[in-house]
Design goal:
CATH architecture of the largest domain: 3-Layer(aba) Sandwich
Helix content: 40-55%
Structural class: alpha/beta
Distance between the termini: 58 Å
CATH class of the largest domain: Alpha Beta
CATH superfamily of the largest domain: HUPs
Radius of gyration: 30 Å
Strand order of the largest sheet: 4-2-1-12-13
CATH topology of the largest domain: Rossmann fold
Number of helices: 22
Shape: elongated
Amino acid sequence: MIFWADKTAEKIIRSEKELYRTECGLGASGIPHVGSVGDGIRSYAVTLALKDRGVDSEFVAFSDDRDGLRKVPLGFPAFLEEYIGRPVSMIPDPFECHTSYGEHMSSLLVDALDKVGVRFTFQSGNTAYKEGIMDEVVVEALNHWKEAGTIIFEMTGQKKYLEQLPFNVICSECGKIYTTRAYEWIPEKKKIAYVCDQEFKGADSRTGKEVAVAGCGHQGEASIRDGKLTWKVEFAARWKALDISFEAFGKDILDSVRVNDRIAKDIFHIHPPVHAFYELFVERGGGRISKSRGNVFTPQVWLSYGSPESLRLLMLKRLATTRVVDVEEIPKFMNEVDYLKKVFFGREKIKNERESQHLRRLYEYVTFLSPGDRTGLLIDYYTLVQLARMLPRTVENRVTLFRDILIRSGLIEEEFSDEELRQRIEYATEWVEEVEETEKEELSFSETEKVALRNLADKLPGYTDGEQIQELIFLTAQQHQVKPGRFFQMLYKVVIGTDRGPRAGTLISGVGPERVAEMIMNVT
């Protein structure tokens, strides 16, 4: 047992519960980048590891949709600037397809989790506070707010919560949440006395300017449902309210998690959940992708070019390594999933048994413990990219041509379905159309061969029938005293980048004689 999810599950089940809940937070204030889906994939992997050990487990995706808006994302309407500082669940959806800005943003991540195959129970943070799910833990935290403030000061040096409650009230006058200061807890009324007198700096990504946000000066009392606990207390409160056994975190909030672990023990009197800490991804510009899809590399962008399994592999492979991730990494992960499948089914031998066990278990988690059977399409991503470049969407019987080329070229061995091939072709085609900056392979032909190819190119536009084109190729080779086998090999290299392929006349007819003639002239 050497995979991290298995080790984590073993730690968790020591607590002996009937149901083990794993959790991750879903950001709702900005467009989710590709790393955002990682928490969900990792938490779900631990849920699967627990179920694999015969215990009941549930993964809860908790939307942080009561957080305030701090920044207007790039590409969003200018009117959002006036809502900076308000809870995202109380801001109108600029696209008018959801009830709020927060619900719209949450839906993007929910959609990504669905597409990647994660099964989860969704919990809105706004709903959790509004409907009283958090009532008990909020009261408990505020009853001990001074002790919580001392813990925060001892662990971080932050003095703020020595003097004010760790609770952000939503101002009843202006609707902002980050400009209020909760200065008194009134336990007999379960009310919080506050004043809206704080300032903070927001931002507008459209203009790059800072936006100064000031409180309105209103003073009043608020219910425990009219706001939210601050981060340094809220994690622990959620763990207790939802009975959470596991949550993964990025190293960027390690200090907050450590504070919450102590808050969990000293204030809420629970054992904090088991954690898995991971290094963060560093984004890098993705060639044409940044021009066509905006600056955020989202999970949906990844899934345009790669399978759910490839994205799962990215998130599950190594937790403790910082990696630069961009769209150009996708082919590597697609090929690695195929490699892991070969290892799992014994078609690729690994001498080191421990390494072999690790890779086999990794593949099981990449498939969410449903590895299937040994059949299926295993093909180098760049081979399909090459074919997609040569056989654009306009080519008739495109999938059949792909299949014939792959089989005749000996590039595939196992049985596979047309649906598998169609999906792989779609990934490669999207890559060619959206991402690839083509670098042509230098082809080397003798002068005699070049003359023969140019002569064929001159004649091709007058032909459409595959059999007639096949005969023309033979005649052209004979006329220029080039061996037919060599001539066909040259044509395959020019058209599809391989030494072999389907019947050349059929291939050229399918790609288009005029297009092939142009390809030939470009290399001769």
